[in-house]
Amino acid sequence: MQKIGATLNLNAGDLVGHLNCRYLTELDLKVANGELEKPQVWDPVLETLAERGALHEQGFIEHIKSGGLAVTVIDGVGADRRSLVATGDAMARGDPIIVQGALQAGRWNGRADVLRRVETPSHFGAWSYEVIDTKLARETKGNTVLQISLYSDLLSESQGVQPASAYVVTPGTNYTPESYQTADYAAYYRHVRASLEHSVSVTVAGHAYPEPIEHCEICRWRRHCDDQRRADDHMSLVAGISKPDRRVGETWCRENCSARNDASATSVVAGSGCRSKLREDS
User: Fold this and answer.
1) Can you give the pTM of this predicted structure?
2) What confidence score (pLDDT) does residue 181 get?
């Protein structure tokens, strides 16, 4: 998420982040608007995952080269004018494989791991391109489907035809891409995209709360959110509490705080009084 002038540019990371956590979207929006500093987090585990991901992608590229196909690599980071022009030129030439192709349509942009030429007509000529993404996870999840859907959508803007399929290459498959029909996931993609676009366009700040979720483990905001929960004495800090029990406690808090007009406790829905009551009842 990056604001250039009056335009808020969005990418695949923003889309995936919004799918996992609405509070993450609110924090990133504050950074883009200059209201909050972006956290600088170094995590050796995440660094190792990033290195493994880069090696997996490079292994796939070497596999392609060993098959005799010429590979065009687009330099740089992000979707700046130079990388966009270089990608467009490569597609116009009909290069068989384009690595790190830069794509943009309106406020949305991204870098696809691989664009592979297929013999389907487009405004480039008798050919067009489809997206291939490399992932470490052996099971393709919603995050990945969203990414390849976005890249395919951006690609359709560039070439004038919607790619029929997008592909994911996971470890242990001898670099055999797994096919996904873009039409099958179009509604899902449009729903999440529209939700994100609405969230960043509203003038009134949202009211999401940093509930602990699986995505927290790889999120740059996890320390910020953990500090917020501790400051609020959030119910997730109760040892061994399950989500259903937490919902019961939060319902009790809403009802009782509302009855005594305790606005601050109602907004947090997890104050120390709620935790104390939960311990008493357990």
Assistant:
1) 0.80
2) 95
